[in-house]
Design goal:
The structure is a single chain. By secondary structure, this protein is an alpha/beta fold. It folds into two domains: 60 residues, no CATH class; 176 residues, P-loop containing nucleotide triphosphate hydrolases (Rossmann fold, 3-Layer(aba) Sandwich), CATH 3.40.50.300. Helix content is 50%, strand content 15%. The chain has eleven helices and seven strands. The strands form two sheets. A five-stranded parallel β-sheet has the order 4-5-6-3-7, with helices on both faces. Helix 7 packs across helix 8, helix 8 packs parallel to helix 10 and helix 9 runs antiparallel to helix 10. It is elongated. The chain starts with 5 loop residues before the first helix and ends with a helix. The N terminus and C terminus are likely disordered. Bound molecules: zinc ion (ZN).
Length: 239
């Protein structure tokens, strides 16, 4: 695990995907220098062109405290509640979700997947979409509380973090029920997993009934945008 450094990674992602010119007037944006974990970075400042459109958009966006409160209510873990302006990547995913697509994020880097899933969730929350974040562990805890599991089945957008972890036959059945309910209601879900969908299928097949595993995989594969995250070498970044 790369426990202490997700902020560095998210920040680099944000900077790399940030607009360098104003989307309204096309003028280059000014940058500020900030230091995180001893590394100085140049970050473009949205609205620094001073044009009227960008100032108007800036003023009409919700207050930072309201945004953070909304993230907390949605269950976003505290370490991922930082305010981020949407990057090109998150904006694209937010659009896919709005069009009813699922997003399946996989790769070996645990923090990167959750950070991306939460960034998409925050982009949706900022647009007023109801989102619920749920780790698989949280889903297990709340499963026998019918209100809690109903909420996970019916919320407009669900983030289901870390699927494929500790799957048993019973949890396979719960997962199938949840995925099937959301699939039938055409409600998008953002999944993260260490496994690709194919690998997850193999894992499920060893623990659950074959038809159940196939049911999960076929619903997961349909109308889903797959995002594979590359492993990030943190040592090279901070070294
Ligand atoms: Zn401008």
């Amino acid at each position: 695990m790369n426990g202490g450094l997700p902020t560095t990674n998210s920040l680099d992602n944000i900077i790399q995907n940030s607009e360098t010119t104003c989307p309204h007037c096309g003028l280059p944006l000014k940058t500020i220098r900030i230091e995180v974990f001893g590394v100085t970075r140049e970050v473009p400042c949205y609205g620094s062109c001073g044009c009227e459109e960008s100032q108007l958009q800036y003023q009409s966006s919700p207050k930072p405290s309201d945004r953070i409160r909304r993230y907390a209510q949605a269950g976003i873990p505290s370490r991922y509640r930082i305010l981020e302006e949407p990057t090109k990547t998150t904006t694209e995913h937010v659009r896919s979700i709005a069009a009813g697509k699922n997003v399946y994020i996989h790769g070996v880097n645990g923090d990167g997947k959750t950070a991306l899933a939460c960034a998409i969730a925050k982009g949706l929350l900022d647009e007023g979409v109801r989102v619920r974040y749920q780790s698989l562990a949280g889903l297990r805890q709340g499963w026998f509380d019918s209100e809690d599991s109903k909420l996970s089945c019916r919320v407009p957008v669900l983030v289901l973090d870390d699927i494929g972890k500790d799957i048993s036959d019973f949890w396979g059945q719960c997962l199938f029920y949840l995925i099937d309910e959301r699939y039938t209601a055409e409600l998008p879900t953002i999944f993260t997993s260490n496994f690709s969908i194919g690998e997850l299928g193999k894992q499920l097949a060893t623990k659950c009934e074959r038809t159940l595993a196939q049911g999960i995989i076929s619903r997961l594969s349909e109308n889903t945008e797959i995002v594979q995250l590359e492993e990030v070498d943190y040592r090279a970044m901070v070294g």
